[in-house]
Amino acid sequence: MKIPYFPGCSLKTIGEGFEKSAIASAAILDFELEELPRWVCCGTVSSLTTDDLMHHLAPIRNLIRVEDIKETQLVTLCSVCYSTLKRSNALVKNDPEKLKTMNQFMDKENEYQGSVKVLHFLELLREMGFDKIKEKVKKPLRGLTLSPYYGCLLVRPKEFGIDNPEDPTILQELTKALGADVIDNPYQLKCCGSYHTVDKPNLVADLGYKILTYARNSGADALVLSCPLCAFNLDNRQREIKRQYPDFVEIPILYFTQLMALAFDLGEEKLGFDIHYVDPVPLLKEKQLLIDSLPLIKEK
Amino acid sequence: MEEEAEKEKMVKVYIMGREFEVPATLNIVKAFEYAGYRFVRGIGCRGGYCGACATVYRFKDDYRLNFALACQKAVEDGMYLTILPFVPAEKAQYELDKLKPRGTVLLELYPEIARCVACNTCTKACPQELEVMDYVQAAIRGDIKELSNLSFDCIQCGLCAMRCPAEIVPYNVGQLARRLYGKYVAPQAKHTHARVEEIHACVFDEELDNYSILVKEDVEKLKKIYVEREIKVG
Description:
The complex is a heterodimer. By secondary structure, chain A is an alpha/beta fold. Chain A contains 13 helices and eight strands.
């Protein structure tokens, strides 16, 4: 099934492995993720000011482009893009006046009819059923213990989340279907520090230390998540965490799609581990989920 | 009779608020000059290439502002005209040799590109009809190749920057990307490099010296050599 897909800026830069592994594993499940033509920034961060329509132009423009290609769904991978697109969509669907104002601004372009549904890729997976996904697993992730991490925008606010905002299970279910073990991490919903990573890396390091150390102490080998910003803060900022907390032990960060690509045995080139700060390869080799091959990690 | 036909071709325009009748065959630059103005700034090649005569106009009783190159746009009846002498836009200082062709370079030198709200106002202002917003978006995601291609026909007139509500300077961002692309990304022409090396190694100096002597001593012989020279076709 062909489905329009919205990558977002991060997946084209810091989250390359997320995109590659998602497209490849989606194909195994008969989803053809087709990049939305001429997509623009999702509009992040969703504006909460009631009269600030300017910052909803970008997300609505993306939804117009979905209608332009005669489609009704848009699937995202990044949690932030998902939330921003979905919130703007709801805003104009619930407020015809606002939609009218924005459509008037669109000028010579097509108007938004409000026909698009914004989905997260995880929702597609849940809809098809984790049992079906299990059937496609060629190399179960046996022996790998993971700590699922949701962050904020995947499940909050409630009306725009994909799962129970207090006790989500979707990542646990997927991870188990792929054959891995999961631990409970009470920090799975805690903030990763988000945009403070730009001006307050120490604050992000504090938050990351708690999330990651709990995971490590509970026996997790790696964290699994779905947001490129969380991934950046929890992976790349381990450099700062080590500086602030000498007892800290590094732990790899994986996207759920990388786990799928591993379990579906799609080959190392679909994983994109070369841009990770903490190299997941030694762990995966130890667990015999990756075989020895050419060195994957470039020198830092 | 002839006089009447002449008169029919006149249109009424408003130059900085003042009414003038000018021939309809003129472009905006010529209309200004017909009315008696002399350009000191805001004028360049008069051929649609240099981008110096970017202008903004409006029609009587229409709220909308329109954008064009003054040397390329014919006057129409009821045009409100002005000229823009200069766009005081931000231009990052960099040494191309010290940059790397990474997408993040664009954000480092022009961090304001992240403020784009995709309103498309820049695209509507572009007299070259480029997809300006699309190339700003390519800049945000660090796609130097796409940005270079989409902005290739930019003539740096500055109208996009004047209109952007996020104070982005699209045309300078595009220029940076094209420089990075040309220097680091696009395939190099090997034969050009080989020839430049030959020139540096003085391979052609003796031959050129001989021709220089002919310029002074035997021009006819030089002409003959030129006419009978070997020309490679294809």
